[in-house]
Amino acid sequence: MRITIYHNPRCSKSRKTLEIIEKAGVSPTVVRYLEETPGADRIQELAATIGVPVSGLLRRNEDEFRNAGDLPDLADDGALAAWLARHPRVIARPIVIDDDAGAAVVGRPPENVREILPS
Q: What 3-state DSSP class applies to 98?
């Protein structure tokens, strides 16, 4: 099983999600997405794999989102994904992908990750 987690080590939910993955015996690929920001195409792929529009990956309570003067139409997935690539703090976290099964979840709450982990 190949698992990738888009992780922010400063986020308690992200740390807890990583802990659940590791306790399940999985050694994930950890992408610190604030340092290794996914591009717009990858953001659209992640949203599609989770089964949400790109707007479903927004952290709407983030100051950077609430105060954005350059926010595109939230229904425009391409423009919004490009905006998120420039503003990665606003991307929901953590995002966990089962690379083999093509399944993904947002780890909020962290227990969501159990949906894609081995039983």
A: strand
Distance CA 110, CA 81 (A): 24
Query: Is residue 78 within a helix (H) or strand (E), and if so which, with residue range?
Result: helix 77-86
Do 56 and 77 fall into the same domain? yes
Percent of the chain with pLDDT over 90: 92
Number of independent structural domains in the chain: 2
- Distances in Å between the Cα of 62 and the Cα atoms of 59, 67, 90 are 6, 9, 6
Q: Note the pTM of the prediction, 2 decimals.
A: 0.93
Residue range of the domain that includes 99: 1-33+93-119
C-alpha distances in angstroms, 25 versus 30, 52, 93, 107? 15, 28, 21, 17
Given a cut of 90, whether residue 24 has pLDDT beyond it is yes
Q: What is the pLDDT of residue 12?
A: 95
| The pair of three-digit structure tokens given for residue 61, joined into one six-digit string | 């309570």
* Tokens found for residue 7: 């992780």
Q: Where residue 23 sits, what CATH number does that domain have?
A: 3.40.30.10
* Residues with a known catalytic role: 11
